[in-house]
Amino acid sequence: MTSxxxxxxxxxxxxxxxxxxxxxxxxxxxxSSAPAAAAETTLRAAAxxxxxxxxxxxxPNRLYPIVGQEFSQLTPENDMKPDRxxxxxxxxxxxxxxxxxxxxxxxxxxxxxxxxxVWHSQAGALQGASQAxxxxxxxxxINRWGSRIAYWDxxxxxxxxxxxxxxxxxxxxxxxxDANGDGDFFDAGDTDVIRDSFIRAKQxxxxxxxxxxxxxxxxxxxxxxxxxxxxxxxxDALYDIVRNYRQYIDCVGFQAHFNDNPNSIITNDLQANxxxxxxxxxxxxxxxxxxxxxxxxxxIGAGQAENxxxxxxACLNVAQCTGITVWGISDSESWRSSERGLLFTxxxxxxxxxxxxxxxxxxxxxxRNPTVPPTTPPVTPSVPPTTPPVDPTTPPPPTTTPPTTPPTTxxxxxxxxxxxxxxxxxxxxxxxxxxxISGWSVQLTLPSGASVTNTWNANRTGTSGTxxxxxxxxxxxxxAGQYTEFGFQGVGTATGLTPVCTAS
Length: 504
Known about the structure:
By secondary structure, the chain is an alpha/beta fold. Helices cover 21% and strands 25% of the residues. The protein is built from ten helices and 21 strands. Strand 14 (411-420) and strand 15 (423-432) form a beta hairpin. The longest helix has 15 residues, at 131-145. The protein is globular, with a radius of gyration of 25 Å.
């Protein structure tokens, strides 16, 4: 959570029934698919079945039974921030609230996310400290709770507001130095608070043999674009940080404080952005989710529920999106209570489920990728086989008979589209054939009027007409039968794309 003022918003959808009543003459016939597994009745159970955690931000005075019943992960809302626990020399103080939360999580089999170590806001006695003092605090905080903390937000909100794509100009980022003047802080001679803080955190984790994973966390980084289709430069800047410091960073947090600020809306390319970070090999988490009712025209019923569905589904559709955390239990107890952005009403231990709660539970119960077709289509029974069935008494052909079709070598490519009026996001999957490949390129032709505005996980030649994409340094090698993915965003309409893959 940030102390900066921000705003965000939502929409609606109804799940299809599993059984359909048909009136035939005077009889009612029930048509139903095969019985589904019993639906889970809590968020934590449904999330666990789908392979992720579902968490909540909490404080010691709000550890009501619902916390352990509905949630499988806990983030201290304020009790691990430096202004609560850090001394000016980087030592620890006043950790009783954090200890209470960690102990409660352990007793309820919940993961804990430590929040946060390095932040320009709520720094308390650390405000203005040197990197050496920050490193002392990082070591003391990580070691106090050890592997009881599954994830630590090492650096929080390092990037400016208003979609500039730049680092903040407040402490501690005022310590950054661009030694060679090339416009970034990634070079060996540069000074970078982000890099140096992660290096220290990684040293502590490795020295202690801890299982804790190290995360970077920020807001307004959720989609590839912001309102109007403008590229999300803040998300791009975060991506560059993670790509350059991947050896230190294990996980990325999208805060997901959605509202009607143009940079804070829910965009159709949320899933594509989660995927591009996941393709770097990190876990992606939605860490501080709340959805302002302004996004659903002040409707906290079906409209808000639909917005929650969109966000949860975007995470579920990416295998490495491994957790979702809401920033509080109920609207009245939220840091943004007037925006009514959470899953419950009520308070003080007595809560009522909103439509958004039921939408999230339903989406989690559907599991991951429910609409993704299998890679090999099932055979339709009504289609006759191309070869007649073999009589069991007929000897099988010799095993040395060559196949009629040689094994597939090289590579193949498929494309999936997420389109809206005036734009689209394409995800292209490159699959190696029967032998590994060390590089690839994909060529496709865009329809007239369509052009590419942004690309990730690939190099690109051209923006319209025939466009060629090729691997970047980290995704050219693909083992036999395995795949990698890249994506691009564009304007116009991109129907009928036929990608052609060439391996090298």
